[in-house]
Amino acid sequence: MITCIGAGPGHLDFLTRRGAELVSNADVVAGFDAVVDVVRPLLVQDQQVITMGYRDQVARLSEVAALHHAGQNCVVVFMGDIHFSGFQFLERVETACGHPVETVPGISSAQMLASRGRVCFDETTFLTFHRRGDLGPFKTHLRDVLRAGRNAIVIPRPWDFMPPDVATYLLSQSVSPAHPVEVWEHLSRAEAEWKGRLGELEGQTFSDMSILLIRALTPMPTGLEGER
Ligand SMILES: C[S@@+](CC[C@H](N)C(=O)[O-])C[C@H]1O[C@@H](n2cnc3c(N)ncnc32)[C@H](O)[C@@H]1O
């Protein structure tokens, strides 16, 4: 058996009980170093741990797949939720195994940011640029959701499409510089790393663990106005 589980982001408090149970009962626990570190307190004796980075992920995942095919119970831990900015890694796991695998959702950095920034999913579009391949369609989608009056929660791509590059792109597309923006680097902290307007974001520097909230210029009506 092999299962992919979402863990984090960044803290064990945001792992589901189901995910924790699967980690503790696995023969093999695999994932990127930083994500395996999050679940390390749950590891028990005799478990095999396979950590990886961007460069050796394909080779390490083929080791995991071989153990899975040999009958070991394997889990691959993903940062946050698999279903947001995790599908390319999932595809790598499935390519290594040669078949679809089970997934267990986790809590995403996007959900944490929605909670920190107090925005609801209904009025907010989630977009990730943290992916290989052509970013063009995702860039135009971001521009269009802002034009449509929605908020956007955006994962940038280290290091060629970071928050200031997101601003440069949007301003070049005539998106208003007045959009309120927050950049969070560590969602477990109480305050955003940076708060300002879209037009002030160029020239700022952030780490690869940053995520943006770009608010709509005008909040949508709640629909309950008439009841007040
Ligand atoms: C490949 S994406 C994976 C996202 C993940 N699947 C999720 O649901 O949060 C990794 C990016 O998520 C963002 N991220 C994840 N955890 C974060 C945290 N604790 N604080 C800020 N950003 C975070 C950063 O932009 C990071 O580079």
TrEMBL record:
This is Cobalt-precorrin-7 (C(5))-methyltransferase. Keywords: Cobalamin biosynthesis, Methyltransferase, S-adenosyl-L-methionine, Transferase. Pfam families: TP_methylase (PF00590). It comes from Deinococcus hohokamensis. One of its GO terms (biological process) is methylation. Residues 1-201 form the Tetrapyrrole methylase domain. It is an enzyme of class 2 (transferase). Pathway: Cofactor biosynthesis; adenosylcobalamin biosynthesis. Gene3D superfamilies: Cobalt-precorrin-4 Transmethylase, Domain 1. GO terms for molecular function: methyltransferase activity. Its EC number is 2.1.1.289. It comes from the Bacteria.
